[in-house]
Specification:
This protein is mostly beta strands. Helices cover 14% and strands 50% of the residues. β28 and β29 form a beta hairpin. The chain starts with 14 loop residues before the first helix and ends with a strand.
């Protein structure tokens, strides 16, 4: 059968040309290694015949279009030898005007499968090289002649009119099509439309919407500057997104918060915190009282991917978890993905928290900050070159150590306790198509006294290059560095001083491409490679006469890589679909010693691998698909399926947010965790009252779930893998949200019912038991009310079922030793948790145009003095021999705080 398939005309893109170019470039790039492999599988003349047929089976119209270029290629063909050089010939020939027969396609598929098989055998090297090759055909999209396209484009950046700051997630609504789009993380948007007259509405929360009507005749660049609402003299209506945006978008399980909304929530100890804000959303629960750790849909804290300008933050907490590392003055906004996680993200099972920093004011110099009872902060920003480059620097420091020095207790006076962090960002507009961004974060916590010291911190840095190929193809390339480390010990000058250090370090390189193909398809393609370095711990005494031996845990190294493609497609006026596929790869490499364990998890053998030797590799395909079916203009049904794979894991001592946690990689003994999540939701908006509602259900199963045996030793344990146990975990639940976004009264009410159970053969006798984050009922109420232009009030109330715990149920005596007998794993629960927080903000010059503006914020944490249990211990009863009683420890009573915030 030699049926002729349709030829390419007018330089348009099709799958045959893409596939041919991918195959050709791959063979050319790796011909020295691949050709011997192919020759052992397929006759070389068959390969040559395949290419000659592909390039000769063109129509007369195609041959005419080649012109002199085709004749030049024929001349070169005659001068080259057979065999390997024919592949170089194929790379020189143009694939602009190819025709394919079914026989040609069959041969092509056969040869492609051979190449893919070879690449899997070569693992890392060819994967990274091939990912680079995949990018090259995108040049064809960028080079397309606009006259050849059926649609024309409207694109540009959406910015703050006063500062030049790009606005992520700003919405563009097209009245004629009843559709639109949103700006990406860099403020860029693109629409593909037929020529004609259109009315566009540009909007963003806290800003005045703009409506424009004009005729679209050719590709047009339109940068839009939105004015903040407080700059207006009369009352205006502002809206963060088109009212039914959450109804029409295919994605579900996504929450967006801008910094203005976050600042209205009552703050713990006066410190506004983005992590505390997302803990009030449905499906998200705090893992401890006042802590920054959180669980999403029953997952552990290590199953949340937390990023600051694309850099991973491994421990996002200050002061043992009571504050997060995110300075609200430096943050632009965040997105939380907890259900349908986009294909561009990977490596975690439960959620993604994408936090973006301010770019800096590009028009004038400004600053803002605050003086509080716990900490003070200052942010400065301004142009380096007006309207072309800008900077932002923000610093924050607590001064608890200053108040400790005023104590009458000498032991308290000798304590030092503080944290500090620094955010910095610079960006430069090279031209209309190129922008550079450089971001840095450094933070550290210090606690010490005469007998003990503890410190930990995060360091991140991101260098990004935005490149606009044309109005429909946007790209971002990033070089990313991330580090987390901690240390503890006894300081010099004390008996037997020692020090213990541990941490981890990442270096990543990534590229993301967004192709706004037409008004119905937005295609995203990308790749990322990360080198992980794990340092579980180095401990030893100080000085030559120390009694402590030096303990140095072996470091672990691993490479993680992924490539993805996704498409957001509007199939019809009623049905929108988003689908994608992510291919991930994880390899351990030496130097390393791998221990073998038997079925009883006893060590019986080991193998040592040299430096740079790859000794273990995992690969995975991670499909994602979601769809939204519009029932009415203001209601829709949505469904989603997502598979995620997690290759690095956390050995955690408690849920209290201590920094003494150990990240460890998958290995021959530790398979990666794999999660499959199914979601179904109903979304309905009430335009009359400006109320958004949603009801989402989910079911999630975690294969190869990791837990620890009873009384596991986690710290400084070279044989940590022998402490692990593996099985399955499943979570299911229902989430309801009612949200009011507009008016003097705004906020939301969320309710979550969820269960999280684990089944691990070696734990709890193989019976299912609730995970540590199984809290069936969770309620959050958030309300903000604008009393007057100068005075506003806020409140939030939370309720949650108590956390599961394991309690002693009896005891036995062996000799003179009394040993407790414990219940089944997590068989009991702590009392229910609930709390009310209040805040009052007074702006004495709310309507002034003066350069200096200030406001006073009074907040009360735990306003009705609920004694929520933090931990329960069983201690001997001094009045009754051989008896014990339960002793509850709680952290906070009523905690008032006052903060003065200012801008200039």
């Amino acid at each position: 059968m030699h049926e002729l398939l349709p030829a390419n005309h007018d330089g348009q893109w099709n799958s045959g040309r893409i596939a041919c170019r991918f195959f050709t470039l791959t063979v050319v790039l790796f011909q020295d290694e691949i050709l011997p492999y192919i020759s052992g599988t397929v006759c070389c003349c068959e390969v040559n015949s395949f290419y000659r047929q592909m390039f000769s089976s063109t129509t007369a119209e195609n041959k005419s279009a080649k012109g002199a270029r085709g004749r030049r290629g024929d001349g070169e063909k005659g001068r080259r030898s057979e065999g390997k050089q024919n592949f170089q010939l194929c790379s020189d020939l143009s694939t602009e005007h190819l025709s394919f027969t079914s026989e040609t396609i069959d041969r092509f598929c056969c040869l492609t499968s051979i190449i893919i098989t070879y690449m899997f055998q070569k693992k890392i090297f060819l994967l990274f090289s091939y990912l680079f090759v995949l990018v090259l055909p995108l040049k064809q999209i960028a080079a397309e002649d606009p006259a050849d396209r059926r649609h024309i484009g409207l694109s540009g950046y959406i910015k703050d009119a006063a500062t030049g700051e790009t606005l992520l997630g700003a919405t563009i609504f097209v009245e004629q099509t009843k559709g639109g789009t949103a700006s990406n993380a860099y403020g860029f948007y693109s629409l593909r439309l037929d020529p004609g007259y259109y009315s566009f509405t540009f909007s963003y929360v806290g800003y005045v919407s703009q409506r424009m009507t004009f005729q679209l005749q050719r590709d047009t660049v339109l940068n839009v500057n939105l004015e903040a609402e407080q700059a207006q003299l009369k009352e205006v209506l502002v809206r963060g997104e088109r009212f039914n945006e959450q109804v029409s978008k295919a994605q579900m399980g996504v929450n967006k918060l801008d910094i203005k909304s976050i600042r209205q929530i009552p703050a713990f100890m006066g410190e506004v915190d983005v992590i505390k804000a997302i803990q009030l959303l449905p499906g998200v629960q705090a893992t401890s009282e006042g802590g920054s750790g959180f669980s999403v849909r029953g997952g552990g804290p290590d199953q949340n991917l937390i990023m600051l300008d694309e850099a991973v933050v491994y421990n996002p907490s200050h002061l043992l978890g009571f504050f997060s590392v995110f300075n609200n003055d430096a943050v632009k906004g965040l997105e939380l993905y907890k259900g349908d996680i986009p294909a561009m993200y990977g490596g975690r099972l439960s959620s993604v928290v994408d936090v973006r920093m301010n770019d800096g004011n590009a028009t004038s110099y400004h600053g803002q900050g605050g003086l509080g009872t716990i900490s003070s902060r200052l942010m400065l920003e301004g142009p380096i070159q007006k309207d072309k480059s800008s900077f932002m620097v923000a610093g924050r420091r607590t001064y608890a150590d200053i108040f400790l020095a005023l104590s009458r207790d000498e032991q308290i006076r000798n304590n030092t306790l503080y944290f500090y962090d620094l955010n910095a960002k610079a960006n430069y507009i090279l031209n209309d198509r190129n922008r550079l961004f450089l971001t840095g974060y450094f933070g550290k916590d210090v606690f010490k006294n005469d007998n003990f010291e503890l410190g930990w911190g995060n360091t991140t840095s991101t260098l990004r290059w935005n490149h606009l190929f044309n109005s429909s193809l946007f790209s971002n390339f990033s070089l990313i560095y991330s580090k987390f480390n901690y240390n503890l010990g006894v300081p010099d000058g004390q008996p037997n001083p020692f020090e213990w250090k541990a941490g981890m370090e990442d270096v990543s390189l990534k590229g993301d491409f967004t192709w706004f193909a037409d008004d119905k398809n937005t295609i995203r393609i990308g790749l990322i490679g990360t080198n992980h370095r794990f340092q579980p711990g180095v401990a030893g005494g100080k000085g030559s006469d120390t009694p402590f031996n030096r303990i140095e845990m072996p470091e672990n190294q691993a490479l993680e890589a992924a490539v993805y493609i996704s498409n957001e497609q509007k199939i019809s006026a009623l049905l929108t679909m988003q689908y994608g596929l992510r291919f991930s790869l994880f390899s351990n490499y030496g130097p390393a010693t791998v221990y073998a364990y038997d079925e009883a998890f006893e060590r019986y053998d080991s193998v040592t691998y040299g430096k740079g030797k790859i000794f273990n590799t995992y690969t995975a395909l991670e499909p994602r698909v979601s769809l939204a079916y519009t029932l009415t203009e203001f209601s829709s049904l949505k469904a989603a399926y997502t598979r995620n794979v997690q290759y690095i894991h956390l050995a955690q001592n408690s849920t209290g947010g201590t920094p003494l946690d150990i990240w460890f990689p998958s290995s021959p003994n530790v398979r990666p965790q794999r999660g499959d999540q199914f979601s179904l939701g109903y979304f309905h908006n009430f335009p009359r009252w400006k109320v958004e509602t949603s009801l989402e259900s989910f079911y999630k199963i975690n294969h190869h779930a990791i837990d620890f045996k009873d009384f596991a030793e986690l710290l400084l344990n070279e044989y940590l893998e022998g402490e692990l146990r593996f099985g399955k975990a499943r979570s299911y639940g229902l989430e309801a949200l009612v949200r009011l976004n507009e008016g003097r009264l705004n906020g939301w009410i969320s309710y979550t019912y969820s269960r999280t159970l684990r089944e691990i053969p070696q734990i709890n006798g193989g019976k299912a038991y609730p995970a540590s984050y199984d809290r069936p009922h969770d309620i959050s109420v958030v309300a903000n009310y604008q009393i007057s232009p100068k005075l506003s009030a806020g409140a939030n109330w939370v309720f949650a079922t108590g956390s599961p715990v394991t309690f002693p149920t009896g005891r036995f005596v062996i000799g003179n030793t009394i040993a407790p007998v414990y219940s089944e794993r997590n068989a009991y629960r702590l009392p229910a948790y609930h709390r009310l927080d209040l805040s009052l903000t007074y702006s004495p010059r709310a309507e002034t145009r003066r350069k200096w503006r200030g406001e006073w914020n009074l907040s009360v944490y735990n306003a009705y003095y609920r004694k929520n249990p933090w931990v329960i211990n069983f201690v001997p009863d001094p009045k009754v021999p051989n008896a014990t009683y339960a002793e509850m420890t709680y952290l906070f009573g009523i905690v008032p705080a006052i903060t003065y915030n200012f801008k200039f």
